[in-house]
Inverse folding.
């Protein structure tokens, strides 16, 4: 076999895993408890731009930005935040630790300054659920848990899940959607994120299959168009996972802390209140802090403070909310993430006991 033939065969074998439905647990459940039909008129401007998209796909109303309360969380500028870092503790240059030939270390600082600005620009409205006439926070929680299961089923990258969740919240911040189309929105959002992040994304038929054939291929594609119009094609945005990876490099910890921080960060996807009030960078920093404190390490080392540009006092409320969820998740009805991190792959970190006290 020629080298070209071998490459083609390898590519086909890699793609094959997505060309058929997953066989582990049969069809995924549809969100049957949030699919009651409610008739809502279509917004005229969206119908004008997208033609018959609305009539076939989604029933929704525009939510005016000036009618929704602005989030009351405090945005801390990296340039103006005065860090209280002890001079006795050295700060490790984590960027120069990488191979210069394989990284862009000289640009990393500027890149993350830009991401800190961008996360404010594209953040969803923390209070959008108050203006949603037909869905609730519990329905959103069910949808997010389902997205976690789909991402795990198809072995998608973590950033794909976070981006899909972000698209849902940003869309719902400016448009109202009926409960019958909420799962369709989540499916289209994850489909978009997969095409952006994955080398071999699942095919459209796989996303239709995973909804238990509740929607057709045409409906998913049309909803994808509506989402793109609403987001104005601004798809590459920072998420909590973006900052989490960098902060974990800054603390140089073992695998247990790494897995626990990812577990805590993923838990924050399930609830719009209170976590949409916080910026992704502050959520990531809080999760790393709780993970370090749980394992018994220094909860806020100087290198973490330096690269996050936060003092612990800046994110005190966020740390408390993450800790509260960490304590309450064993009794929560949403168990998909806890079950996921109960496996050997994730070192069973969801079975760890949360700390009784916080590090402040």
């Amino acid at each position: 076999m020629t080298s070209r033939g071998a490459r083609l065969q390898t590519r086909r074998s890699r793609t094959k895993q997505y060309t058929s439905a997953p066989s582990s647990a049969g069809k995924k459940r549809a969100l049957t408890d949030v699919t009651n039909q409610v008739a809502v008129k279509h917004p005229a401007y969206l119908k004008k731009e997208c033609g018959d998209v609305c009539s076939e796909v989604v029933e929704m109303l525009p939510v005016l930005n000036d009618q929704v309360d602005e989030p009351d969380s405090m945005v801390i500028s990296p340039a103006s935040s005065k860090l209280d870092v002890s001079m006795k503790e050295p700060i490790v240059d984590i960027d120069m630790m990488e191979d210069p030939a394989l990284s862009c270390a000289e640009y990393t600082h500027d890149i993350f300054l830009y991401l800190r600005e961008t996360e404010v620009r594209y953040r969803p409205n923390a209070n959008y659920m108050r203006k949603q006439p037909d869905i609730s926070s519990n329905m959103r929680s069910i949808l997010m848990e389902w997205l976690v299961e789909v991402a795990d089923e198809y072995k998608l990258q973590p950033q794909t899940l976070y981006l899909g969740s972000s698209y849902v919240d940003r869309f719902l911040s400016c448009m109202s959607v009926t409960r019958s189309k909420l799962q369709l929105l989540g499916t289209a959002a994850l489909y978009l994120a997969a095409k952006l992040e994955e080398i071999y994304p699942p095919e459209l038929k796989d996303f239709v299959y995973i909804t238990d054939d509740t929607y057709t291929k045409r409906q998913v594609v049309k909803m994808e168009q509506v989402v793109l119009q609403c987001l104005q094609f601004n798809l590459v945005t920072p998420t909590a996972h973006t900052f989490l990876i960098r902060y974990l490099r800054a603390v140089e910890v073992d695998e247990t802390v790494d897995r626990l921080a990812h577990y805590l960060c993923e838990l924050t996807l399930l609830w719009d209140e209170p976590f949409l009030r916080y910026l992704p960078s502050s959520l990531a920093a809080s999760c790393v802090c709780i993970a370090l404190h749980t394992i018994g390490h220094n909860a806020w080392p100087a290198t973490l403070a330096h690269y996050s540009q936060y003092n612990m006092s800046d994110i005190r409320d966020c740390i408390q909310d993450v800790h509260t969820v960490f304590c309450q998740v064993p009794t929560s009805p949403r168990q998909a993430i806890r079950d996921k991190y109960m496996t050997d792959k994730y070192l069973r970190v969801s079975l760890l006991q949360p700390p009784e006290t916080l590090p402040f």
About this structure: DSSP finds 15 helices and two strands in the chain. The chain has two domains: 24-68+129-231, 77-124+238-360. The first helix runs from residue 3 to 16. Residues 2-26, 32-55, 63-81 have pLDDT under 50 and may be disordered.
